[in-house]
Amino acid sequence: MDGFGTNGKYMRQCTTHDEFVQQHVVVVATTTASTLLDPSILRPGRFDVEIALGLPTESARRAALTNLVAGTPVSTDHQSTEALVAALTDRSEGATIGQLHAIFQEAAMLSLRESIDVTEIRAAALERACCQVMGESKRVDVHHGDNEEDEELEDKLNAMSLE
């Protein structure tokens, strides 16, 4: 399956509908994999302007992560919010804004799998989700206090990251 679906189904549909477009209609298309685009979609008259945007800088990722943390019930596991954002910023180098959102969605799912009654996403779940979304397969550094529950969770997460 390519970026346009099986056998280019979506690309064909897009070019077919393009022929019926009336005046005063603007179509905006985005991709994170421009090298996978079928050349026919880029023919003159279809998409006249191409704007290339790079990946978010470190400061842009930090700002996005700060907003995501502020809008999400997060337990920082005995570290400051700034330290959590800094750790996630470092681990998310090369991530798109969509991937940063995916980290928080995956962390929420990890938290729900741990307990259906969860009310906050733990920092450990965010760090684990970051590893999953970014494709890392290294040990998770969990910042925890001195209680057995945190140590058990750290062991579980590290065992999962080694599988």
Automatic annotation (TrEMBL):
UniProt keyword list: ATP-binding, Nucleotide-binding
Record region (Disordered): 139-163
Keyword Disulfide bond tagged: no
GO cellular component terms, semicolon-separated: cytoplasm
The keyword Magnesium is annotated on this UniProt entry: no
A molecular function (GO) term: ATP hydrolysis activity
Protein name, as recorded: AAA ATPase AAA+ lid domain-containing protein
Organism: Aphanomyces astaci (Crayfish plague agent)
